[in-house]
Design brief:
Blueprint: H1 9-24, H2 28-34, H3 36-39, H4 43-58, H5 60-67, H6 77-92, H7 97-110, H8 112-115, H9 118-131, H10 138-141, H11 144-154, H12 156-164, E1 172-176, H13 182-188, E2 191-193, E3 199-201, E4 218-220, H14 223-232, E5 239-243, H15 249-256, E6 260-265, H16 268-281, E7 286-289, E8 301-307, H17 321-325, H18 328-346, E9 349-359, H19 368-377, E10 381-383, E11 404-406, E12 418-425
Parallel strand pairs: 5-6, 5-8, 6-7, 8-9
Antiparallel strand pairs: 1-3, 1-4, 2-3, 9-12, 10-12, 11-12
Amino acid sequence: MSEHEDIGLPAREAAAQFLEAALSRRTGLDEALAGSAGRGLAPRDRAFARALTMAALRRLGTIDRALAPKLQREPPERVRTLLRLGMTQLFWMDVPDHAAVSTTVAIADRLKPTRSFKGLINAILRGLQRDGRPADDPETLAPSWLMARWQAAYGPEQARAIAAAIADEPATDLSARDPADAAALAELLEGEVLPGGSIRTRKRGDLAEWPAFDEGRWWVQDAGAAIPTRLLDVQPGETALDLCAAPGGKTLQLAAAGASVVALDRSADRLTRVTENLARLKLTAEVITADARSWPDKRTFDAVLLDAPCSATGTFRRHPDVLWAAAPGDIASLATVQARMLDSAAARVKPGGRLVYCVCSLEPEEGEAQVRGFLTRHPEFTTAPVTAGEGGAPAASINPEGWLRILPHHLEGGIDGFFAARMVRKG
């Protein structure tokens, strides 16, 4: 019996709800995973439903390209969802072909709106099975409007390399509480130490059961997300402000480096996770619920980090839903928010202090354009260029201005897409 052969219909029905939620709006997948559809499942079934949904999202472009010639007219949403999930099981999950087809047809038969389509679903999936697994084409793995943007920003070759990473399931990256502990943790966790000190492992399963979790020796953080904080190079005793701090990885980095940290975020719910991780890691920070743009506190800091709200297109390796839930208008509206937050952050930097601005976005309007505008508005700041290898930054990511434009293929095995720029307030 294969790994997933005995998984039943409820898990697959939950996956259908997860996929539709992921495609309907930003944060839809997170809300669905935390909602009733996921809570009612046994842990193994819930894990399967999530894995099936993620696999479908990673190859949604490939799937829809293969389905297009099989459909004479647009079917109801749930029918298309079932076809997508059935095809995912056929080609990219450890599910026998007969189970992939029969369970998909059985789900269609359970509901009146889809019952009349069960013959069509069976015929299409059987036809796809005969055709064989379709090849992934980077040109269709991403939504066409995003692919066009990446081609304009980075050129056709780089855009294809970015999109090719969408189909790959990433490893798990960790940050060590004590950088000197990284090598020992890598051995313990069957991983490797990456440039900059992150640990990469292919382990699977419940993180809380991994070695050294309860001891608070590490936390989960993508290697790309860990780089901006290292660029601040905070020293023990310095003051540091982490704006938009949740979910907390960068706050943990600052606290572990010995800084006196203020962690600010407008979401009290998301700050709960920050507080929990600080406790597990036995680190301290002053955690405050407030909007970074209007926080009335007049303190200034040696180091300020602004990881601004953004389209998050650089996080598609772990969150492929961001590509399909995003819309072109999101980028312009978020760019307005980012500019206001940068202006607010500037006032919180001491003379001679450092400011790092970063976004987990691949879109230039949210990265390079923001910093150019900021430096024009704030002549009291100047760029502090990043050097090759600093903080684990791939050499290919350093642009002529000395800022980082990390693309997902800049590190073997992949890395989240990030933009980061370090600036210094003139003394």
